[in-house]
Every structure is written in structure tokens, then in C-alpha cells.
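Translate sequence into C-alpha cells.
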Amino acid sequence: MSCRVLVVEDEIFVATELESILEDMGHEPIGIAADSRSALELGKQAEIAFVDLNLVDGATGIDVGRKLADGGVTVVYMTANPAQLGQGVPGTVGVIPKPVTDSEIKQAVDYAVALFKQQNPAPNPPSRLKLFSLPVGGSSGSSEPLAG
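Result follows.
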């Protein structure tokens, strides 16, 4: 059940910790992107991405996440500024506020993997992961809120 996971994060200590957790879980981190250009380039190889909002090139994470999701990547935002996302970004999973515990990261990874692989039922998301509406049935265009 291994996935290729992109870490979009400009704080190197946060990024390397997340990368280490992903490796320990048996996933393949495909790289760390600290800016939008490298995130979109590396995103071509990703199945799942954890995306911070404020990168070295500014508050570009929202757009990065949207573009990655449009390309079929399962996107979870991880930020200290979740209010910047408002009611959410269509096509992305949700947002988990930083700081995040290792346990919450593992739960968020398991949840994102289950969504990517369309496992039914999906495991419970971490309690602090605010879920956005996700598409139901792929390209049907309808959406259904998953949880509070």
C-alpha cells in the first residue's frame, strides 16, 4: 500500500521530519519542495502531497495544492494558518493545523492513502483534520461533505 508522496514545505526541519515518518511508514517520499515551481515539477510524480501555504516564494501553497489536485494528486494542507483556506479548496482533502504530532501525521497519511486508493471504508481522519468537500464518483462533479 505504498504511495509516492510529495512534501511541499519551506521549513527544512518540518519537511525532513515528515519525510522520515513517510519512509518509516513504507511510503516513497519523492522530494521536498520549498517553492511553487519545484512543487509543481515534483508533483508530476506524486500520488499524495502534504502542502504548506506559505512557501519561500510567498503564499503560493493554496494555488499549488489546487493545481496538484487538478492533476489527480490527493492533497492535504498542513499549515499554521488554516484560516487562510476559508471554507476550503475544491478537490483537496482538507487542512491540519501545525504544530502536528507524529501520531496525527501518521493518521493523516493513512487517511490520504485510503482516499487515493479509494479504500472503503477509509480509516478515521485525525480529529484536527478539517475536511473539505470531496468529489464523489470521480468526474461526476457532485460533492459530498465528509465530516465536520
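Note: The helical segments are 12-24, 36-42, 61-70, 102-116.
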